Amino acid sequence: MRMRSDTKTLIKCIAIPLIVGGLAAFLTRDGMKYYIEEITKPALTPPPWVFSVVWTILYVMMGYASFLVVEEGTGDQKTARMIYFAQLFFNFFWSIIFFNLRWYLFAFAWLLILWFLVLATIKAFAEIEPKAGKVLIPYLIC
């Protein structure tokens, strides 16, 4: 019975960031098209499909990290979850600000806040379950 509960919790934890990312991608698809086709980018910019693959992996890792925290059941869960959901909120709206609204300077400031929130999430998660903090390090780097 415990295994089935763990599996359901894992699926829920992974689904949340995937839904956030998928919805953001859906809402910004026209803005992304503009970015891909119209904006001059550095020569070493990866092809567009790489971003979809990498961000899907990062969203799964976010969900897995949150699962580790939920399953640990100790520490300041409430604060950790508040920070986690705040960074998901900032992650979601960054795409809209950058790709749809094209407010590039504001998007940069928003990104700095997002980066700080990701760092705070790593710290809060690591205090509850060290592995959860480590799982989020690639997200901080990207």
Brief sketch in words of this structure:
By secondary structure, this protein is an all-alpha fold. 85% of the residues lie in helices and 0% in strands. It has helices spanning 2-27, 29-38, 48-72, 77-100, 104-128, 130-135, 137-141.
Number of domains: 1
- Structure summary, number of beta strands: 0
Tertiary shape: elongated
Report the uncertain regions. none
Sheet having the most strands: none
Mean pLDDT equals 93
Structural class: mainly alpha
Measured as a percent range, the helix fraction is: over 70%
SSE ordering: HHHHHHH
Q: What is the overall number of helices?
A: 7
- Gyration radius (Cα, Å) is 16 Å
Measured between the Cα atoms of the first and last residue, the distance is 38 Å
What top-tier CATH class fits best?
Mainly Alpha
Name of the CATH superfamily: TspO/MBR protein
The CATH architecture designation is Up-down Bundle
Strand fraction: under 5%
Question: CATH topology, what is it called?
Answer: Ferritin
Task: Describe the protein's architecture and organization.
- The chain is an all-alpha fold.
- It has a single domain (2-141), classed as TspO/MBR protein (Ferritin), CATH 1.20.1260.100.
- 85% of the residues lie in helices and 0% in strands.
- It has seven helices and no strands.
- The chain has helices spanning 2-27, 29-38, 48-72, 77-100, 104-128, 130-135, 137-141.
- Helix 1 packs parallel to helix 4 (77-100), helix 2 (29-38) packs across helix 4 (77-100) and helix 4 (77-100) packs antiparallel against helix 5 (104-128).
- The radius of gyration is 16 Å and the shape is elongated.
- The chain starts with a helix and ends with a helix.
